[in-house]
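User: Here's a chain of 286 residues. Predict its fold as tokens.
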Amino acid sequence: MRVHFRQAGSPRRHHRPGFESLEARDVPSTTPIAAHSALPGHAADTTLTPIATSSAPSAQAAEAPLAQTVTTKSRTGQTPFPDPVVIANSINLIYGPNSLTPRTPTPAEVKRETFVARYVGTYTVGTPRFSDRSVTIHAYSKTGGSNQFLKGKLQIVLFPPANPDAQPTPGNPYANQVTGIASLFTQNYLQSGGLLILDLNATPAPGSDPSALPTHLNWTYDSFSSAGPYTGPTLDFFQGAGVVDIHYIPDPHPNRGTLGSGHFIASFQGAINTNQIISAISKVYN
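Assistant: Prediction complete.
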């Protein structure tokens, strides 16, 4: 469309719109993109795959690619997530013969209590707080989520022992163990105030390197420190146990002022018996 003039030099109010024909054109065409899919006969499995870099990335620049790097692989030869063996062991710790509440949960209850979460973030290694610790490890993530809440943040602090061969004493029962805390902040309905606290511990193999980063730890549900839907008011609603596996991707050049830094992928799985009074996903009561 263009403007037609009745006569040269005519005032602007005499301008009027008009139509003109278009030249003949071919119909646009595109080349279809082949969609990536699993091989026939194999179930698709999404797993996080770290990106190898030749230079030290910044925390914000590297965190997003790590979270978005999802590859499709066959389940053949791979441990499923969550691992049914881990879930069964967690249920046995909560309800087995040696537990505080020995009983048999129904399959529906086992499914309700199953807890999984996965986060991608950054970590730093600093000096120890006490003489019986080797280092202090801080980890932080805002990329991840869980099957019990849609999104959230994660903070972890770990205290590996200075001497994995130390003998526990009444004054220091964790002298030879890795101790720590994981705080999972739920963020769904207007910052609902949900807080899930997990107490972490692991026993390194005798003779292991005290400076080695712990990769496999046990966790127990700390209902008395948790908040929101994870508050446990009675005996029936404060049990929880499982494991967390942490994969570290160290920076080629650690951050200044640290003993080490990098990115991590933390995978939680286990069972938590929440009270189910408050939903971690919506504002309404269950």
